Amino acid sequence: MALQIWETLKEAITAYTGLSPATFFTLLALLWAIYYVATGLFGSSDDHHQRSRAFEEQVEPLPPPVQLGEISEEELKQYDGSDSKKPLLMAIKGQIYDVSQSRMFYGPGGPYALFAGKDASRALAKMSFEEKDLTGDISSLGPFELEALQDWEYKFISKYIKVGTIKKTVPVTEGDGSGEPSGATESDAKPAEDGPSQGAVAGTEEKSSSADAKEE
Q1: Angle made by CA atoms 162, 167, 169, in degrees to the nearest 5
Q2: Which of 90, 106, 132, 139 has the fewest Cβ atoms within 10 angstroms?
Q3: CA-CA distance, 164 to 69, in Å (whole number)?
Q4: Are the beta carbons of 97 and 89 closer than 8 angstroms?
């Protein structure tokens, strides 16, 4: 009985589809596999919204950038990503940008993590990862390196928010800073303030001795 049903089914498949039974069942299995994978990836719309909502709850929103104003390079090092509660900052040509949204690149473990918390102008211009190039000194760069640095700066301006600038250090010169010669001391001015100079005293003594001689 079962054999007769199977034979009848094969004849019906061939008659209505024009395919052999083996080809028909292969296509049927393939369509079922595609359907199973598609429903697994996308699922129903309700499941998709629930997963999206759960993901958004797990990912904390980034706090708004805080304007720091003018800070020193030493203070900038505090924002290298080692403290997750602080923003991730980086500087180019003395301008500080908040790169917290790209923590996967500039944060700890990222490919550009050594640039964070520093003015990496020279390193970016040369595409160098050496410690000696992690500086804002671009005085000896060539035209092609300066052009590359300019491209980096345009990228940062368009993508990140500027939050401050690096404080420029002023070289200290000798002297008291009042514009007077540093060699001047209080002892140089005392003779004029306290009394006659030694030369004036000697002249007075000579006049007295000559007057005494005339009287004699």
Answers
A1: 155
A2: 139
A3: 4
A4: yes
